[in-house]
Amino acid sequence: MSRTTDQRPEQRGPDSPESESGFRRWSRRKHEARVAIQREKNPPDPLPATTPTEPQPERVLTDADMPPLDSLNEDSDFSPFMSPGVSDALRQAALRRLFRSPQMNVLCELEGEFFDAHGYVPLGNIVTHDMRAAIEREMEKAKASAREKLQEAIDSPPEDTVAESAPPERTADAPDATRATTNETNLKGDA
Prior knowledge:
Elements: H1 3-6, H2 22-41, H3 88-99, H4 129-155, H5 159-165, H6 177-190
């Protein structure tokens, strides 16, 4: 029997070639080849001769370190003005200068304030053709609706007038309404 079949899988070590499947071996060899190519292309940098033991503190910029505001344009770097040592007044003046530049002062066409409404010419007494046509359409609709209502009124009398013209039905059990009012009037006259 061969050696690989004599040993059980538990007896094989994790680094032994017998414990590695074909796919894992292929993947490992591919990875090793890539690493070797990377090492050839980018050799490790030699260590600098002097390595600083303490990082040097960054210098905090102040108002005196800033360039004059008149020299700033849209291509200038405004990040130094954000330093904590710069006064708020100078920072705001620099930002105002930045936001007024043509590069930043662009309106979005989707905003409601995009179109300038300050220079419009009022219509005054002028009624445009479209407005006149709309008014005429509404007048025709109102006339047609009034004609329909008038025709309905002519063709069928209202239900209230029919009920008023017919005499009330009398039943034998119901007392006569005219007699009751007459009796009440006589009683009031006697008192």
